[in-house]
Structure of ABC transporter permease:
Amino acid sequence: MLLDQFRDPTVVKGLAQVAVASLLAVVVLGLSYVRHLDLETELGRAFVRGFVQVIAMGAVIGVLFSVRLAWSGLVLTAMIGIAAWISKDRGAGVPAVFRVSLVGIAFGAGIVIVTMIAAGAIEATVQNLIPVGGMIIANAMKTNSLALDRFKGEVESNRAEIEAVLALGVPPRKVISDYVTTSVRASLIPMVDSLKSLGVVYIPGMMSGMILAGANPIYAAEYQFVIMAMLFAAGGLTSMTSVMLVGQYAFTDAEQLKLFEERTADGRKAP
């Protein structure tokens, strides 16, 4: 069954399209090298990794379409765990960053998926749960990464001020509240901009795909907005949960700010 998917003529056609798209990506890598941006290694690895992962996921989903619904729950759980593991790198050095990411993504994405299944917006089938659930989890991961990265930067940049205010006896939660707010707002900027431009500048692929498949354009637009609202809700709940948890873990029992370990790009402790 798995090999039959790769024998499909459309897969061969798709590889040719991948080659063309990859050439455009190579141009970006070349410009990075010429401009000494030092991004070509990370970008190249991410590009190859993304291709391998998405092809593998496509093959797995093709097999999962023929199995029982319960398997989709296991797949989504695995996706949440992997998303938390990837997202933690953006907050590398932050206390309990993996635990925070796992709880935040599971909470934000989980609530949205369960609620929208109950509302009928996501059909309780493998064919719908895994692709749509994956989109929600991925967006929650991206928002979580942005929130952690911003929070870490805010704390490191304002460490002296935070410690001075703590020394005056101000509760840690109050001291950190402004940085929590700033981090959550920053993490939601891409999603807010997407909503502002929806239908004017940004015409999402799902809406286009539904229209090309013969769906009513108005319904396609409505369902696309539902998807965007789900992504926004999942991202918002995730970033708020993660940053608030990090804010708690950032202090010792004596209400002192913990040291944020310096980490390299791959998440290892800096020498």
The chain has two domains: 1-66, 69-271. Residues 151 and 183 are 5 Å apart (CA to CA).
